[in-house]
Amino acid sequence: MGIIFITGGAKSGKSKFAESLAFKREKRVYLATSVIWDNEMKNRVAKHRLQRGEDWVTIEAYKDIDKALEGTIDDADVILLDCLTNMISNIMFEEYDGDWENIPDDIPGKIEKAVLEEVNKILDFNKIYMGDIIIVSNEVGLGLVPENPLGRYFRDIAGSMNQIIAAESDAVYMVVSGIPVKIK
Length: 184
Hints:
45% helix, 6 helices, alpha/beta, seven-stranded mixed beta sheet, globular
């Protein structure tokens, strides 16, 4: 078993495609990495839950995912992590809550290291897990260069993590306008 990585733009159909792959399995775990900050995010989460239905074990975590999964997924056929870019942004804001316009030079490297540690935990967990892990992530490098440092740091870190996970994945899909295209 292994990793299936699904990337694409915002509202491209990534999650819907990932769920369609997971629905082929009997025992599914949904690993939600979102943090609900406002009503808009609350509504998005509710929509995703409704779309998935109730035949899932749901775990909410964006770090120490390996520990969050221990003991809860023993007989699960598939884990769907949705999504990596939410995980990254949550870690970024946890690691630094200062002025992103005047961020100290050492902070971006510390943030990327913290994110990489979490990504490596997922990759290590995959080595002992007997099912598939489907990882959804936004492809953030196809648009304009963000005008502010926060956006550029996020783009750079997310792009690096996407590359690391794609390299370790058994299958990689890019979803464009609701159409999945297998690229690995």
